[in-house]
Amino acid sequence: MxxxxxxxxxxxxxxxxxxxxxxxxxxxxxxxxxxxxxxxSYSPMLHNAIILCGTDFSTDSRAKxxxxxxxLVKQCRDELYREAERPSLPTVQGVIILxxxxxxxxxxxxxxxxxxxxxxxxxxxxxx
Length: 128
Fold this sequence. Notes:
The protein is mostly helical. The chain has a domain at 44-124. The protein contains five helices and two strands; from the N terminus they run ββααααα. A two-stranded antiparallel sheet has the order 1-2. Helix 2 (44-54) runs parallel beside helix 4 and helix 3 (66-83) runs antiparallel to helix 4 (89-104). The chain is globular, with a radius of gyration of 14 Å. It starts with a strand and ends with a helix. Residues 9-13 have low confidence and may be disordered.
């Protein structure tokens, strides 16, 4: 899954998420009422961050509405707070996507802050 705030900026494309694993685990988490809320490839934080990033690619004008964007950013932040005590790879991926989105949307301070959070989380999860 390639994600970028600016679809025309070739250098800002990053392979961040394994799409097949994400979709498989998303289905597993969302299709069962008593299923897990997170797996090794899916978390609500990551899901919301991908939806947020997808608004730039949507042709539906409602996806560009500032109220919709602000709501998605808030949902990402709320999910981050729920996942932060026990972060996993999908949590870190979601925070990276959120930081990249905000930086690309000229909210540099917040974008850099979330990128720093993702780096720190990756250290605490021993991904480095």
